[in-house]
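Pipeline run #58 for the internal structure catalog. This entry was flagged by the ingest filter as a single-chain record with no existing model, so it goes straight to prediction. Upstream metadata was stripped on purpose; only the residue string is passed forward. Reviewer on rotation: M.T. Logging verbosity set to normal.
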Amino acid sequence: MWIHHWDPESKLESMQWKHLDFLHLKKCRTQTSTSKGIVTIFWDSEGLLLIDCLPPEKTITGQYYAELTCKVHDANKWKRHGKLSLGVWLLQNNTPVHKSLVAQQAVRYCGFVQLNHYTYSLDHAPSDYYLLRNLKYHLHGNQFANDESLKAIVEAWFDGQEREFFF
């Protein structure tokens, strides 16, 4: 997901009730964000596995995503002792990066079972509705100097969630 280093108040959030004689509602000024970055988050029913901030001036390619898949495999070994042998199911959307040959080979190499994500089937992406919406709400209005401070805040937010949140 895209995360802005600073997300200004929206028009809807800045609206106020006024007396009937006053015709105009207060609206915020639009201000641009200082910068934004792509953050890739891997999580399971027990919590956070891996957060990756894409370096500036780079794009996510099949090779980059394949390397991330191997990092998730290593993080799963380290954080979920013994559960890797039980099998890992990977749910990801149908972007060209995820469907690239090199990314698919990395998924098979790591031994992940890939769940099919149907095209235009948003009800199969609980992270979009639940996890990412709550995370963006928490980050809204904060300013981040760089990707490392953003990553630290995101990790702290994940650590503060109850186990039932992820399940």
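catalog note: The two ends are 21 Å apart (CA to CA).
catalog note: The CA atoms of residues 5 and 145 lie 7 Å apart.
status: ready for reviewer M.T.
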